[in-house]
């Protein structure tokens, strides 16, 4: 049996208008104090806000919503703060505070950053499934996931799971805004955070002065069908490799080498002995088709990690899986998702809208076929159900200045996703960053555009000249790390 955060990461690897006044009534349930967060030397603010687990029962069970506030470097301009809506679903915003502080340096020069752990993540009543003691990401494979794993996960979760949905998360976010005394805020949503951001725009448009949606998960497109988008991203990588002379010379048959590795793994996993990338000890390493594909897919999310994909494929073709093991080690030490919330939301808000025909079309691709479907099809049939009303799935039309950002080679939220939001929102602009992957907002070019937009609040009056200076993809051509 395997409950693996690393595996969950690999398989991925949003109105109550009268509620606004109710939010202010929650200020007596607010606690906030100076604190320090790992990775940040500067003193910040940490707080909790007590809210109802079920907003229809305000005097019932209460939960604490955890948040952090990173103060602006210069607060004299008194600009509206930026609230960060994390991805996933299942990412805790406060847990990545140090990363966000660095990535949003331009923005926080004049604005506070508000980081709220979505209910079900971080310190906001986390819905997490613990690792099985002794489980190793080197010997476990995705194909081993079964119903007992799911039941073990569910047994660890507490609370009324039907209340850990996107709409209640937005009620929490707006309650934090109100409790902190802000009439209006700006918001940045990345990945699933864009879905949350769109719901925020629908439920509490009066609370928002500007919105940034980075790598859009539109309400109209169900989360879960990643086969076609991953294949698109992978095929663009292959094409870019052939366009770069050094990559083409090093890996002239890269597409065929990938297909050969997959064919070898199709029937049986391969077991090799490697030197543990961190410990230096002999370690058994099991590679299956799904493990290989899911590991490659995770690299497609990042421009930096994409540079290694041709080398990893080529070395695997030669029978050397040490580079692949190195990626496993990196993922082993990276932050996991709160998988209880991930499945709770996707299984209930998205999967019921995916037809058999949609699954079939998504699997008709030359990269992973249906590899990204396994977890959903295993977990969701036995996950406790709740359903949101049909109004939740209607296109959002709020007239709020909105900047939409897409990375051209994104494997999970391709630019076509951003077109949905751009079409329905009356005051928006969609910019596409070439040779950029998932959530490129914090990149040097995009963050300058974001900062200008948050000040001007006019998506059609921005300096986008840096978009033409984004370099082409480059790739590692040898084990010594040359690019």
Automatic annotation (TrEMBL):
Describe the location of the AB hydrolase-1 domain by residue ranges. 81-216
Q: Which UniProt keywords are listed?
A: Aminopeptidase, Cytoplasm, Hydrolase, Protease, Signal
Under catalytic activity, the entry for this protein gives: Release of N-terminal proline from a peptide
Give the enzyme class.
hydrolase
Give the signal sequence positions: 1-25
Where does the Peptidase S33 tripeptidyl aminopeptidase-like C-terminal domain start and stop, copy by copy? 374-466
Locations listed in the record: Cytoplasm
Looking up InterPro entries in the UniProt record yields: AB_hydrolase_1 (IPR000073), AB_hydrolase_fold (IPR029058), Pept_S33_TAP-like_C (IPR013595), Peptidase_S33 (IPR002410), Pro_iminopeptidase (IPR005944)
Q: Known EC number(s)? A: 3.4.11.5
For this chain, the family text in UniProt reads: Belongs to the peptidase S33 family.
Know the name of this protein?
Proline iminopeptidase
Taxonomy-wise, where does this protein's organism fall, top ranks first? Bacteria, Pseudomonadati, Pseudomonadota, Gammaproteobacteria, Alteromonadales
């Amino acid at each position: 049996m395997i409950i693996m955060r690393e595996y969950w990461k690999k398989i991925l690897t949003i109105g109550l208008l009268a509620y606004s006044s109710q939010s202010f009534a929650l200020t007596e349930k607010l606690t906030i104090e100076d604190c320090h967060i790992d990775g940040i030397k500067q003193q910040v603010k940490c707080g909790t806000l007590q809210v109802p687990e079920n907003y229809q029962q305000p005097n019932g069970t209460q939960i604490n919503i955890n948040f952090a506030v990173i103060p602006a470097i210069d607060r004299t301009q008194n600009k509206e703060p930026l609230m960060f809506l994390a991805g996933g679903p299942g990412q805790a915003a406060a847990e990545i505070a140090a990363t966000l502080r660095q990535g949003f340096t331009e923005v926080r020069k004049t604005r506070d950053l508000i980081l709220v752990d979505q209910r079900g993540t971080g310190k906001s009543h986390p819905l997490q499934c613990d690792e099985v003691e002794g489980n190793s990401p080197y010997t476990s494979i995705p194909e081993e996931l079964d119903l007992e794993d799911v039941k073990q996960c569910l047994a660890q979760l507490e609370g009324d799971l039907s209340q850990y949905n996107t709409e209640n998360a937005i009620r929490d976010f707006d309650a934090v805004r109100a409790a902190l005394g802000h009439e209006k805020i700006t918001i940045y949503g990345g990945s699933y955070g864009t879905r949350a951001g769109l719901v925020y725009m629908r439920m509490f448009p009066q609370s928002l002065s500007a919105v940034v949606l980075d790598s859009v998960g539109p309400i109209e497109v169900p989360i879960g069908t990643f086969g076609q988008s991953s294949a698109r991203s992978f095929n663009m990588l292959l094409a870019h490799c052939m366009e770069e002379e050094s990559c083409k010379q090093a890996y002239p048959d890269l597409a065929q080498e990938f297909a050969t590795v997959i064919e070898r793994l199709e029937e049986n996993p391969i077991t090799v002995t490697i030197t543990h990338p961190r410990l230096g000890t002999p370690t058994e390493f099991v590679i299956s088709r799904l493990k290989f594909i899911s590991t490659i897919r995770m690299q497609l999310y990042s421009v930096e990690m994409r540079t290694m994909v041709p080398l990893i494929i080529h070395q695997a073709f030669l029978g050397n899986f040490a580079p692949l093991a190195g990626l496993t080690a990196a993922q082993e030490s990276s932050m996991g998702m709160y998988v209880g919330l991930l499945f709770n939301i996707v299984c209930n808000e998205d999967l019921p809208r995916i037809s058999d025909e949609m699954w079939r079309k998504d699997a008709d691709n030359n990269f992973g076929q249906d590899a990204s479907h396994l977890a959903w099809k295993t977990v969701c049939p036995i996950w406790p159900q709740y359903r949101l009303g049909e109004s939740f799935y209607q296109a959002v039309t709020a007239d709020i200045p909105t900047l939409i950002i897409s990375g051209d080679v994104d494997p999970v939220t391709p630019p076509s996703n951003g077109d949905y939001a751009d079409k329905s929102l009356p005051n928006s602009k969609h910019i596409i960053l070439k040779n950029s992957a998932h959530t490129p907002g914090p990149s040097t070019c995009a963050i300058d555009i974001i900062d200008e937009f948050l000040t001007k609040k006019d998506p059609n009056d921005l300096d986008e000249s840096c978009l033409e200076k984004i370099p082409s993809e480059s790739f590692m051509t040898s084990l010594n790390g040359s690019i």
